[in-house]
Write a structure and sequence with these properties.
single chain, 75% helix, globular
């Protein structure tokens, strides 16, 4: 992991991008940059998915966003002209398992949670993601980040909670409990599925990895709709989805771009650091909602943004 005051990004192509040079005054490494971009892209995707969720079910959104993601990954590989990696049988099995757990099950549960408890409370539940990454990264790989980074991560989590705690709980207790439970399980699925890929990402570029994972997600989601709703609903889902511009925009930012950055972040930096920066997505959602949805930036939200940014700054310098 790079810890110099400046860095030369010579391995950018390994993530499926062209070589660039970035200069940072802090000890941000390339993985940190990817993780922050993940948060920004995902926050854009969440806003679009939230609008699309008014007319489509969680399973439908999951299928459609995965299709858009796979089209994007395939196009990226074809345009770049890369040779598809020669994954061995064991790697394919891990990729399929990761796709089922993280893309099929995890994403559907997240979207189901979002529909029940809304973006505000969902953001609070999502703080469990960072904690689970800390725990799983230690159990699976013995990874420990610096104590100061833990303090920075705590400030980010506190900022997220403060920024979203004023969510009105007018929903029924059953829906809230279900939404929180779905969200926690989704966090566990997401955290485990990405850490499962770490040994593979050390060898292979992330775009083909994302392609296989999301292709698996498409198959599972399509089978789910076919089994639960029937062939007519499956066909209608695809036709309706590709005329829903909010869903297409959400899939572009929240699936195609954010997944590439997300996997690259975990490839090039410590999992704990990547998770902390990923958590900034909630803060970005607060800011984007105030800009594009005309939501009022209250004093509580400004405090939340400030704490999260301070926490991220602490992580970036240690």
């Amino acid at each position: 992991m790079c810890s110099k005051k400046s860095f030369n990004v010579t391995n950018f192509c390994n993530a499926g991008f062209h070589k660039v040079t970035l200069v940072a005054q802090m000890s941000l490494n390339v993985g940190d940059i990817y993780a922050i971009l993940t948060a920004l892209c995902w926050s854009c995707g969440v806003i679009f998915f939230g609008i699309a969720g008014r007319v489509l079910s969680s399973l439908q959104i999951s299928l459609l966003k995965n299709i858009v993601g796979v089209i994007g990954f395939l196009s990226f590989i074809v345009i770049k002209g890369d040779v598809f990696p020669a994954f061995n049988d064991e790697e394919y099995i891990v990729l399929f398992i990761s796709g089922i757990i993280g893309v099929a099950v995890g994403d559907i549960l997240f979207l189901a949670s979002l529909r029940r408890i809304g973006a505000g409370l969902s953001a609070i539940v999502s703080t469990g993601y960072t904690i689970l990454i800390f725990i799983l990264a230690y159990l699976m790989y013995g990874e420990v980040i610096s104590f100061i980074s833990y303090i920075g991560g705590t400030l980010v989590i506190i900022g997220v909670v403060i920024g979203t705690i004023d969510k009105s709980l007018d929903d029924s207790p059953k829906q809230i409990i279900l939404g929180v439970l779905y969200g926690l399980i989704a966090n566990l699925c997401t955290a485990y599925s990405v850490l499962l890929l770490r040994p593979i990402m050390e060898i292979h570029p992330v775009v083909p990895i994302a392609l296989i994972r999301f292709s698996t997600g498409i198959i599972v989601s399509a089978v789910g709709i076919l089994f639960l709703k029937g062939q007519i609903v499956l066909k209608d889902t695809v036709l309706k989805g590709f005329t829903n511009y909010n869903l297409l925009a959400g899939a572009f930012f929240g699936t195609f771009l954010s997944v590439i950055f997300w996997l690259a972040g975990f490839k090039y930096t410590l999992a704990g650091r990547a998770a902390i920066y990923n958590q900034l997505s909630t803060i970005f959602i607060i800011l984007l909602a105030s800009i594009f949805l005309n939501e009022i930036m209250t004093k509580r939200k400004w405090i939340a943004v400030t704490l999260a940014l301070i926490g991220s700054f602490i992580v970036s310098i240690y």
